[in-house]
Model the fold of this input.
Amino acid sequence: MIWWKNSISFLSASIDRWFSAALRIGALLAALIMLFILLFLLLESWPVLRHIALMRFFTDEAWHPLEDQYNLLPMVTGTLYASSGALLLAIPLGIASALFMIFYATPRTAVLYRRLIELLAGIPSVVFGFWGLTTLVPLINQWHPPGASLLASILILTLMILPTLALTSYAALVAVPKDYLQAAVTLGLSRWGMIYGVALPAARKGIVAGILLAAGRAIGETMAVLMVAGNVVQHADSLFAPIRTLTANIALEMAYAMGDHRAVLFVSGLLLLLLVIALTIIAAWFGKTHHV
Done:
């Protein structure tokens, strides 16, 4: 009997070691893939970075690659405006959806609502774009032409990232230990007092991680934004102005770009990657030093 228990213990320890090794290898592979992507973008961008100063990508008069004009700033601001606007709308809606499912809805309603959110998460981006092009853009055009605009981009991106925020916030809030909530009830806190004072701070890191994922998708979205943004290279002076994002610019021009023009499109991809890295650093700092 003793040898059987020893065998089971040895087998369990071996499985733990193998599983730990597999996780380490997986983490290393993920880091290497990220590094290879960065190196690939740098390699493809190098032909133009060798003889064009970085500041020219933000100070040239316009975006006219055939005339050696490579101003990326309007597309950077368009990307930031669209993604920031979508986050401003989707973050409160996503967290509110998670709170509704956990603390306010009946069990049946919560299940139905979660299934609806999961269904929304599975819709392809091109379907969102097609709906925006055929329905949302004409509605905005009736209000304020031309319809294809920064506002349309923000609304489409909000719909696309809302499920990510809602489901990750839900998972983070469900993981809050029940003892915390029971202690809050024992102390006489109201439902909102329990949510604001206990549940949200305890779920802070998970919620911040969900915001980071949603921000990454908003910044990197291509097809849906390309279909509703208007694709005009300009600084948006209102919500109704057409814009072009970095991702849309790559998708539109990569098919025929050559030479420096092609290399500058890879510079656009490098900028997008650096934006995501900056978001990761900000989210890590925010998760450590701030409360939700």
